[in-house]
Amino acid sequence: MSTQASDTATSSSPAHNPLSIAILDDYLSIAPPFFTHILNLTIHTYPSTLHPSSLPALISRLAPYPIISTMRERTPFSSALLSSLPNLRLLLTTGTRNASFDLPTASSLSITIAGTTGTGPSRPTPALDHVTPPPPPGFDATTQQTWALILALANNIPRDSTAFHSGAWQTGFNTGVAGKVLGVVGLGRLGARVAKIGTAFGMHVVAWSASLTQESADAQAQAAGLPAGTFRAVSKEELFRTADVVTLHLVLGERSRGVVGEGELRAMKRSAVLVNTARAGLVDEEALLGVMREGAISGVGLDVWWEEPVGERSVWRTERWGVDGKSVLVGTPHMGYVEEGVMKRWYAEQAENVERWIRGEEVRNRIV
After folding, report:
1. Opening angle at CA 253, ends 249 and 258, nearest 5
2. How far apart are CA 13 and CA 2, in angstroms?
């Protein structure tokens, strides 16, 4: 085994060793220890994400490798990219699906794609001996991140922390959420968890999705241990018009892309906030920028972005949000799944699949 951690590793370097892996987009550099025990495996890490439009650079970087480890939906693997990687035989992702992979092309090229569940490998591994366990069933990091953003906006946490460390004291009012309306766009597994917590804060919950009925909303409430009627199914227009907090929990697809546009944003109360921990593509970016520059809504909490990582010169980083009448922005770098117990178990599962593939065994959590 040998390891190289560099975004400048040459494309020819692994060519002499047919057993080599490229680890992509591992921003926290946690993956390599899970692969180092695999005999004769050369490991190269590329922590800096290349933009999908940089196809020649991606091909040059990845062409030599038979095995590639990825983090879900960071580097897309399009048909054009997959077709230009003649050595690729095993493509690893985290999670059990990856919308940024062209699965039919991978299948046609006999590229095996395997995912992870976050529960860990089938056998104990020393690399996990001192790792905190993942959240127990029924809990998840995304729900926690959602409420962290909601409360950061309501209680002005970023502003007050900055003021405190600069020597100031109280600088403004907090906003109580009790008695306010929580609008949940997408009342699935995550949306229902966020909604249940809202009721603990004394909020009234309304919800919408294209297929949501009051019957299904009642079923979600009862599954969460709450009475039928706790979650009220409403129209999309009513949700955006009446909610004090709008939180997004839809899966991104062709039907949901841009589901929050100019009309929805303009319908929101001036005092309302929007939180998105799902996918950036659910929201029209230019429409949101326009509304925020006018201060047409109070604040926005974003954990997902239209281009990730967000560039240093992006307006999301450089514009002075929350001053001169603009909306407040609380931004986090897509942390809604970055929980140690889950992340490290993902990589442990990937390493097990590398070993299974080398031995000619069936990989676990096979996608293609």
Report:
1. 75
2. 12
Residues in the chain: 368
User: Based on the number of CB atoms within 10 Å of its own CB, is 363 exposed (0-12), middle (13-18) or buried (19 or more)?
Assistant: buried
Identity of the residue numbered 30: I
- Euclidean distance between CA atoms 280 and 302, whole angstroms: 8
Can you give the pTM of this predicted structure?
A: 0.91
Instruction: In whole angstroms, give the CA distance from residue 348 to residue 127.
Output: 8
Q: What is the pLDDT of residues 79-137, one digit of tens each?
A: 999 999 999 999 999 999 998 999 999 999 999 999 999 999 999 998 898 898 888 98
Token reading at 30: 């946690």
Q: Which residues of 82-106 are buried (b: 16+ CB within 10 A; e: fewer)?
A: bebbeebbbbbbbbeebeebbbebb
Whether the Cβ atoms of residue 92 and residue 38 lie closer than 8 Å to each other = no
8 Å CB contact between 209 and 282:
no
- According to DSSP, the residues that pair with 7 across neighbouring strands are none
The predicted-structure confidence for 190-243, as pLDDT tens digits, reads as follows 999 999 999 999 999 999 999 999 999 999 999 999 999 999 999 999 999 999
